[in-house]
Amino acid sequence: MIPDALQTAVHVALALVMPPLLLGVIAKTKALFAGRVGPPVLQLYYDLAKLARKGSVFSTTTTWVFRAGPVVGLATTLVAMLVVPLGNHGAPIAFTGDLVLFAYLFGLGRFFTVSAALDTGSSFEAMGGAREATFACLAEPALFLGLLVLVRRSASLSLTTMLGPALRSEWAAADASLVLVVVSLVIVLLAENSRIPVDDPNTHLELTMIHEVMVLDHSGPGLGMILYGAALKLFVLGALVVRIALPFTTGNPWGDWGVFAVGMIALAIVVGVVESVMARLRLLQVPSLLVAACILSGFGIVLAR
Amino acid sequence: MGVVSRLDRRMNEPAWMVVGAVALVASSGVPGLFLDRKSRAGERIAAVVMAAGAVPGVAGASIAAFADPPPAIDLPWPVPGGAFSVAVDAISAFFLAPIFVVGLLGSIYGLEYWAQSTHPENGRKLRLFYGVLVGALALLVIARNTILFLGAWEVMAVAAFFLITTEDEDPNVRETGLLYLVITHVGTLSLFALFALLHGATGGFDFAVAPGAAPSPVVASAIFVLAIAGFGIKAGLMPLHIWLPSAHANAPSHVSALMSGVLIKMGIYGLVRVTSLSPAPPVWWGTTLLVLGGMSGVLGVAYAIGQHDIKRLLAYHSVENIGIIAMGLGLAVIGRSAHRPELVLLGIAGALFHTWNHGLFKALLFLSAGSLIHATGTRTIDRMGGLSRAMPRTALAFLVGAVAICGLPPLNGFVSEYLLYVGFFHTVARSGDNTWLAGAFGAPALALIGALALACFVKVLGAVFLGTPRSPATRGAHESGHLITGSMGALVAACAALGFAPLAFAPLFDRAAAAWAPEVAPHLMPLAAITSLGWIGASGALLVATIVAVAAILRVRVRAAPARMALTWDCGYAAPSARMQYTASSFADTIVAFFGRALRPAWHAPDPHGLFPAASTFESHVDDAVLDRVLLPATRSTARGFGWFRWMDRGNSQLYVVIILVATVATFLATCGAHP
Predict the structure, then answer these.
(1) B94, B114, B319, B325: which has the fewest Cβ within 10 Å?
(2) What is the ipTM, given to two decimal places?
(3) What is the number of CB-based contacts under 8 A between chain A and chain B?
(4) Residue B147 Cα distances to B23, B70, B136, B143, B664, angstroms
């Protein structure tokens, strides 16, 4: 066993340092599929270091709400990071109903990100904001249905206990509901993090984008915070999926951290593969995908126990 | 004997405080009637008397909430079946607090918003009925005699009518007032039937059922259905909400705040009292409340998204929030049927806490909307824009209200939704009965409502306060004065206090749940033990600390390098104009289309012809489908069907008097043998 203080320190350090790596792995996977060399795996770290030192350009239309967008977006994800368990290790903050806080923190981040987009007065950015707010209306219920399956299986109301050591024996019970939850949560993960097939983070056509178009006007350190916040959000939601999909324990606390880290990189590779082999859906088809995620989790609730 | 009565009197002092407060508040507008219609003295006296009533009223309620037995007053009243019988238990105390708080703040706000110097034609009338309304609301929640209750109910309904029709020179306002008056009396009619059934079952006029005198299941269910109809109309549950949007839109803003924040909660109060009467309710009661609540919640917010008028939009959000409260009450009733004390506590606590929260943040939003209307002279969202520069305080108040109503941390709306989620999770976490269906329906519905509300309020915030001004009226806007911003500031502080320190209020919910379901009371765990309200408050503080820290980092980094100002990047377009901005309607378009089957949006699109089409206009609006497509056609065809009955309707007063006389004598003859 390792002391709680050290465990919290490892949790925070890993969650702060690792997220940009995941985006590097995704980019490298996509490059391999395309037959390119691709950017270095650590590219986002370099970008963040550069953006932190660069000057900013602010639109004359904007007010303090525009600057609050990146700040609140990053701060809410940081607090959500403290609530989610990483692998077999519990979260530093765990209490009855912490999953509600977890889900609603992303809501607060979305509120300010979209408001910042509207603050620029640009139609393009407002269009992205409208899409983000619209698709979230289906992603939120899907996330809650997925969490309900976990609540029902584990009879507990905290992320740390419902993703605790008992998870492995639940898999051994060969119950389909966990499979359904994993698939459903992966869809939510792709939608919430604006990945293909919902949104394409690399496109440069403003009319078709969701997340990237919302943040068109940000620059310098503010843009850096948005990029880092997006990576952290992928990490936090990914941790949920990885823990359910890979509920292994090694018996050694450091080994468990290793299992988790390897799982996260595997998840990044999976996301990269999905992005390489799939095309982006038409915007009007996105709701169907999210409704499918809701239905999968709905079946999961019926099947659980 | 003397000792007992003195003790008795001291115990009942809180009830006397509340009754005194009711009297003061109700008469607050009277002195102004004797003063000049433009005089500032009348409105100031009204506000001071309102404060003199509201402060002891809240104090009395908070003492009474923890008193055992509940402080009560019983005085004879020479009305047949009536008695001046009032009691202040935890549930009454719970509803009294927002009545007095919102009532007082609205009165202060009204000093600037509806000053008698600028509205001499109706300022005194407004003050008189505002006071009467607040007094009637407070009397309503402490009345224990059904006749007294109905009396207070009718005074409330009529006072609200005169407030809605404050600007009765406008035909729209008169039409709205008439619709309200008709519908509210349909509700009152069901309440008469309800109390008649209750009287038949218990033999008394007390708003309570003595142990052992429970009505038969059929009568109990009839009472429940009548309560859904009568109280549901007042609360604005979805198919019964038809009076609500136009009434809230046309009343002066501080009256809208009082109506939306407090008055419609009287429907909830009635439902809470009636459901409290049955110790073993059938499962379908709870299910009905839950499903109606979910429907109100989702469709209410969907209608809200389609609105162009900021006050109509806020009114539809009341329908949504009443739905959330009804879901909580439904959960509590289900818990009572299934003998699950934790569901009873979480359901009642969630419903009542959301009643408070909605009262505060909706009042805040209506007051900010009023401040906007005061400054710009329009209620149309798409004519505003960029107002956060001219009206920074109103913008901040609206932002806080918007975050709170979306149920987002760290404000109060999040806490009540958290309680409901925990309740729904409890139903799902235990197998063995069918209550898990409630959670599997309730939690995703609540998530959907929350996400839709977020889309709606981001839309309003963006279209009204952000970007650039869309019309000349908006360009000349100015911030409101201290009375308006001060009353909004008080509500902002209240929203924050309930969000950061919810644990302090947990004992009150324990008392309220015990008062609602006395038979469950011995099995109730304290709310603080089955939830983590302390952590909720602490995580709010942590969130604020993180935001401040990240903001400090950004500030340092931005200052470290040269920053410059430029035009918004519009894909290279160098001359963006205000009219090129995304409108609120465009923002909402996808969601409105998604709910198209329920909302029936109307489009009036131009049909351009030729190479040089003439100038044309485009218009879209979402009208109330229940009113326009169901109720009005139904009443029209009913009126046609009863055309033959009009032979009586000859404008001959003598004939009417004869008919009334015959009907009275017939009723007298039919009933005089009923009670020996």
Answers:
(1) B114
(2) 0.96
(3) 258
(4) 19, 21, 14, 9, 20
Q: Quick check: B407 and A104 CB within 8 A?
A: yes
Among A229, A68, A225, A219, smallest CA distance to B562 is for: A219
pLDDT at residue A73, as a whole number: 96
Contacts of B433 (CB under 8 A, 6+ apart): B338
Burial class (CB in 10 A: 0-12, 13-18, 19+), B471: middle
- Alpha helices by DSSP H, listed for B114-243, are 123-142, 146-164, 171-202, 217-235
User: What is the C-alpha to C-alpha distance for residues A15 and A284, in angstroms, rounded to an integer?
Assistant: 35
Predicted pLDDT at B2:
45
Could you tell me the CA-to-CA distances from B44 to A264, B131, B628 in Å, in that order?
A: 66, 13, 42
Sign of CA dihedral B104, B106, B109, B115: negative
CB A187 within 8 A of CB A290: yes
What are the chain B neighbours of A217 within 8 Å (beta carbons)? 568-569
* Nearest in space to B530 (alpha carbons), one of A175, A250, A157, A34: A157
From CA A80, how far away is CA A106, in angstroms rounded? 8
Are the CB atoms for B124 and B29 separated by under 8 Å?
yes
The nearest alpha carbon in chain A to B385 belongs to A121
H or E, element range at B87: strand B83-87
- Find the CB nearest A124 among B386, B403, B570: B570
Work out the pLDDT band at B1, boundaries 50, 70, 90.
very low
CA–CA distance, B237 with B219 (Å, rounded to integer) = 23
Q: 3-state DSSP call for residue A205? A: coil
d(CA B401, CA B487): 13
Mean pLDDT of A53-68: 93
Residue B259 in tokens = 């109506």
Write out chain A residues lying below 8 Å of B421, CB-based: 97, 100
